[in-house]
């Protein structure tokens, strides 16, 4: 079965020949796999694994590139403002850990309420931002399903700009400030996502981490007050250009209290359905006719720590739970981490190919 046909079937809740596959890994894992398999570039790896999707996001603006922006191995466009200190286009500053593996925040441009009055958002309409996406669509649209990434949609972008404690405090103590910041982000995301749809993406991928391992990071009622209405406006704002475009939503952890709300605002695909946090059988039973489940292969426990026998058995079990009636895309629950055996990664996709 062709890649696009396979994805369309499962998104329309018709069981395809096998679950569609997606893939995400940290750059060091990708490089190890390329060396191990004697492949040249990431596209070769995607072809080897038989991945059914190709993904691209919004690039940097021309003015930011002129300031010396480069794509950091941690998959973020930044400039280096001082040794080891990096700044993104929103003015958020980061420092890497000693191994250079992770970013930590060192500065937020909206740390004080009054900073918002003078803050200038980057221009999301800059045509330079979409050149890479356009090339991806031209190269792969006829064969693969194209995802346009717009994660950090509202919550994560807002708190990274203002600082987590400051943002959470203002949810309770200065909600008007929160509303103003989120409205500005809505304007930004509307331009971005409408451009994605105009260019021809099949899926707009939104997301914010609202879940911890066993509870939500904020009260579900706060989510419904501040985020749900803006999600609805955003999705309606690009689907009126093409009602056939699908919407994918990412949140790690436990978010079961708002899954029904996500369906109400127009989410078609839920990622990553983290099995440490939510019961796959329960989620499939309750929402499997309305949502496509994307993910489910744990990068926290299953992939890094299972024996090959355990891994294959669990992958088979997950597919048997999630695949009936379509509505399932097999993928890791997050970027695969550096401590994961390469044999385990390959075994996941080999198992998915031979099971059905």
Strand line-up of the largest beta sheet: 1-7-8-9-10-11-12
Outline, from the CA principal axes? globular
CATH topology of the largest domain: the name is: TIM Barrel
Amount of helix: 40-55%
Low confidence ranges: none
H-E order: HHHEHEEEEEHHEHHHEHHEHEHEHHEH
Q: What CATH architecture of the largest domain would you give?
A: Alpha-Beta Barrel
| Individual helix count | 16
Largest sheet: 7 strands, parallel
Mean pLDDT: 96
Q: Give the distance, in angstroms, between the N- and C-terminal Cα atoms.
A: 13 Å
Describe the structure.
The chain is an alpha/beta fold and 356 residues long. The chain has two domains: 3-58 and 124-355, TIM Barrel, CATH 3.20.20; 62-112, no CATH class. Helices cover 44% and strands 16% of the residues. It is built from 16 helices and twelve strands. The protein has a seven-stranded parallel sheet with strand order 1-7-8-9-10-11-12. It has a five-stranded antiparallel sheet with strand order 2-3-4-5-6, with no helix packed on it. Strand 9, helix 12 and strand 10 form a beta-alpha-beta unit. Helix 9 (175-199) runs parallel beside helix 11 (228-239) and helix 11 (228-239) runs parallel beside helix 12. The chain starts with a helix and ends with a helix.
Features:
356 residues; alpha/beta; TIM Barrel; 2 domains; seven-stranded parallel β-sheet; five-stranded antiparallel β-sheet; globular
Secondary-structure topology with pairs:
Blueprint: H1 3-11, H2 27-37, H3 42-49, E1 53-57, H4 62-66, E2 70-72, E3 76-82, E4 85-87, E5 93-96, E6 103-107, H5 115-118, H6 131-140, E7 145-151, H7 155-162, H8 164-173, H9 175-199, E8 203-207, H10 220-226, H11 228-239, E9 246-250, H12 259-265, E10 269-271, H13 280-287, E11 292-297, H14 302-305, H15 308-322, E12 328-332, H16 342-355
Parallel strand pairs: 1-7, 7-8, 8-9, 9-10, 10-11, 11-12
Antiparallel strand pairs: 2-3, 3-4, 4-5, 5-6
